[in-house]
Design a protein that fits this description.
- The structure holds two protein chains of two kinds.
- By secondary structure, chain A is an alpha+beta fold.
- Chain A folds into two domains: about 190 residues, Periplasmic binding protein-like II (D-Maltodextrin-Binding Protein, domain 2, 3-Layer(aba) Sandwich); about 190 residues, Periplasmic binding protein-like II (D-Maltodextrin-Binding Protein, domain 2), CATH 3.40.190.10.
- Chain A has 20 helices and 16 strands.
- In chain A, strand 10 and strand 11 form a beta hairpin.
- Chain A is globular, with a radius of gyration of 24 Å.
- Chain B is mostly helical.
- Chain B has a domain of about 200 residues: MetI-like fold, CATH 1.10.3720.
- Classes of the chains: A alpha+beta, B mainly alpha.
- At the A-B interface, helix 4 and helix 19 of A face helix 11 of B.
Chain lengths: ~400, ~290
């Protein structure tokens, strides 16, 4: 009997999971940056240090292409299956917060050094009076150009919108597969960012008071220029292909954020020296909050603590400094790039300058923030009409205003 | 089993009935119930808080976008099923003949059916790419195209460009079904036809077609229903664009639900799509009943 009891006790003990495994936690972390040059190194380094500091905790980082990222996250949240570490393009943050899918973090922020040391764009993480995330990347748009293509075409680096259009025209040679501009020409919400670069850059605005302002002559004129620029770009291109065209030396210009700098290192050795960066040729530089980290709502307390510790580590000064160095992009923490480092790395100086000067291009009107996806989708359809039809720009914009008034009415 | 009470049979069927009820009827009920909830949310727990009424149906029936999607769906169905059937029939007739390498060719022809829609979409996105696609290069070399055409980004060509990969993926099912039917036709009928001096067309019309008609009808109905809910190829290649040119009902439902958070409107569109599917089945039920029952 003794033997039987001893055997049963042993069997029971063996059937229990080891103590170490009982503490095992995996934090699910999808991101569109998991394979992006510069960003991938930063995330992987951060995760390595985090896991070393948290034995038994694993962070499962994996990539989802940006084109489908927001939709996939939406489906996961709607299906009550959100990731543990939520990485979002900040422009879509409000629609997630509006659905009550994110956890307010005011209490956690209070006990951190983030509030006094962060970019002013951190305020965009507010919804209904509460703070819901930590901004990772505030940015200003930049103009990337291929110096050799400009020289060959007898064009100079533009300092005004008219000069930019002229340089695009000179460098476009479709028969040679060479384009004046690489930009999104396939229907995608990103089209709004490109158009906003022209409209806000020319000191115009989509909204007047609390009303849509698409029929304003100033807005129409700026969009007309934007429309013209699209005629120098390859058709049916998404943002990833546009960047690749520029890196392959097949496009003279690319309007993009600072994150492209790290990707430029992938260019062939004979092309890389020609790829340069400068400020956009507009009186106003546009930019905004690029992406941010969040905690999903109703997460269990243990995971909430772990996710916050992950965010806090990402926000710590050493990792913020590494962020700038590895990604070539501005960090959320201010003053990470000192004047001396800006002198040593002129591109870091340029991106910091653009980020500091940039005016937010994303609408801050609450109804538009909450319905950004619908707003940007309707907008991109109007851009497609500009590309594929001969309809006058003012008529397309008047129709867009009508559609938006019905779909996303402003209170 | 004879003489046993009837309840034993029902008891044995019960687990299957419960499973079917849970997997089919409950989601159907849920879609129907959601279609009467008016408002904007994706939080399933908050859906019951939304006002109940027929507003979503009023909205979708009054919307031009709905009828545009219905039109695109019908064109997409017709554009997919007719060529897929003809290619499938041609391939089945070819594979029904004896020739060297037939086994190898049979596997090869059926291959597209096994390829996931995502892969098909990527392959065709590259083939038909506006700047670097091989199709544009060939057409330009042949002198049939003056400038590069972004097939998926051009309003006039996008729907055709979406139909091509769908046909490529759909035709093997017709081939498989029709080949099975062709092989069940006794060869003695063809021998008798030769003796009677029948032409090839007459053999096809009076022997082959009656022999495969039932399978063809069933395959066409199944493929039509599949094409009606086809999502991945359309969404991955064009996302329903440009400017709604390829926005089928399936893509519109997805957009309404997961891009614009209007679950009620999406469900109402789902009910409309179901209605279209039921209508298609009812229209073809007579021919199926005649052949099979």
């Amino acid at each position: 009997m003794k033997h039987v009891l001893a055997s049963l006790a042993m069997l029971f003990a063996l059937s229990l999971p080891p103590i170490a495994r009982a503490q095992d936690v995996t934090l699910d972390f999808p991101s569109w940056q998991a394979e992006e040059p510069g960003f991938a190194e930063w995330w992987k380094g951060l995760i390595k240090e985090y896991e070393a500091k948290h034995p038994g905790v694993k962070v499962k980082l994996y990539s989802i292409p940006f084109a489908n990222y927001v939709n996939q996250m939406t489906v996961r949240f709607a299906g009550q299956n959100p990731p543990d570490i939520v990485h979002l393009p900040s422009r879509n943050f409000a629609s997630f917060a509006g659905q009550k899918w994110l956890e307010p973090i005011d209490d956690l922020l209070k006990n951190s050094d983030i509030p006094g040391n962060w970019s002013k764009l951190q305020s965009e993480m507010t919804w209904d009076g509460k703070m819901y995330g930590v901004l990772l990347l505030p940015y200003g748009n930049l103009l990337y150009y291929n110096e050799k293509l400009l020289q060959d075409a007898g064009a100079k680096v533009p300092t005004t919108p008219a000069e930019w259009l002229d340089a695009m025209a000179r460098t476009t040679n479709r028969d040679k597969g060479q384009f004046g501009l690489a930009t999104t020409t396939a229907e995608h919400p990103n089209m709004f960012i490109d158009a906003a670069t022209w409209v806000l850059g020319e000191k115009q605005d989509w909204l007047k008071g609390n009303k849509y302002n698409f029929t304003d002559p100033g807005v129409v004129a700026a969009v007309e220029q934007f429309r013209k620029s699209l005629s120098y770009a390859p058709p049916g291109t998404n943002s990833a292909v546009a960047r690749q065209l520029f890196i392959d030396g097949k496009a003279a210009f690319l309007r993009d954020g600072p994150w492209v700098w790290a990707t430029l290192q992938k260019a062939k050795p004979e092309i890389r020296p020609s790829l340069k960066m400068t400020q956009l040729p507009f009186p106003v530089i546009t930019g905004g909050a690029s992406n941010s980290l969040h905690i999903p709502a109703k997460i269990d307390l243990q995971k909430k603590k772990l996710v916050w510790e992950f965010i806090a580590l990402a926000a710590s000064p050493p990792w913020q400094e590494k962020y700038v160095q590895l990604t070539g992009s501005p960090a959320g923490r201010v003053g990470v790039i000192g004047p001396e480092q800006a002198k040593r790395d002129p591109h870091l100086g340029a991106i910091t300058q653009a980020a500091e000067k940039a005016e937010n291009l994303f609408p801050m009107q609450p109804a538009l923030r909450e319905n950004y996806n619908e707003f940007a989708t309707l907008f991109s359809r109007a851009v497609v009409r500009m590309q594929s039809s001969s309809q006058p720009t003012d008529a397309i914009l008047a129709n867009l205003q009508k559609e938006l008034t019905a779909a996303v009415p402003l209170p | 089993m004879i003489g046993r009470p009837r309840w034993v049979g029902y008891a044995l069927l019960a687990p299957a009935l419960v499973a079917v009820g849970f997997l089919i009827l409950y989601p159907l009920y849920l879609v129907l119930a959601l279609s009467f909830r008016q408002g904007k949310t994706l939080n399933v727990l908050r859906l019951a808080e939304l006002p109940f009424g027929p507003g979503n149906y009023r909205t979708i029936f009054a919307s031009d976008a709905t009828w545009h999607s219905v039109f695109v769906t019908v064109v997409y169905l017709a554009g997919t099923i007719a060529p897929a059937f003809l290619i499938g029939l041609g391939a089945a007739l070819l594979l029904n003949r004896a020739f060297p390498g037939r086994r190898w060719l049979r596997s090869f022809i059926l291959l597209p059916w096994a390829v996931p829609g995502v892969i098909v979409s990527i392959v065709f996105l590259w083939l038909l790419d506006g700047s670097f696609g091989v199709v544009n290069a060939l057409l330009r070399q042949a002198g049939w195209l003056a400038t590069d055409l972004a097939w998926f980004a051009n309003e006039d060509t996008a729907l055709a460009a979406v139909i091509v990969p769908t046909v490529w993926k759909a035709y093997p099912f017709f081939t498989l079904t029709l080949l099975a039917a062709l092989q069940s036709i006794p060869s003695s009928l063809y021998e008798a036809a030769v003796v009677d001096g029948a032409t090839r067309w007459q053999s096809f019309r009076y022997i082959t077609w009656p022999g495969i008609r039932a399978s063809a009808a069933l395959a066409a109905i199944l493929n039509t229903l599949w094409a009606l809910r086809e999502f991945d190829i359309v969404y991955l290649t064009t996302g329903g664009g440009p400017d709604r040119a390829t926005e089928t009902l399936a893509v519109r439902i997805y957009q309404e639900a997961f891009a614009f958070f209007r679950m009620g409107t999406a469900s109402a569109l789902g009910v409309l799509t179901m209605g279209m599917a039921i209508l298609l089945v009812l229209m073809s039920i007579r021919s199926i009943r005649r052949e099979y029952f």
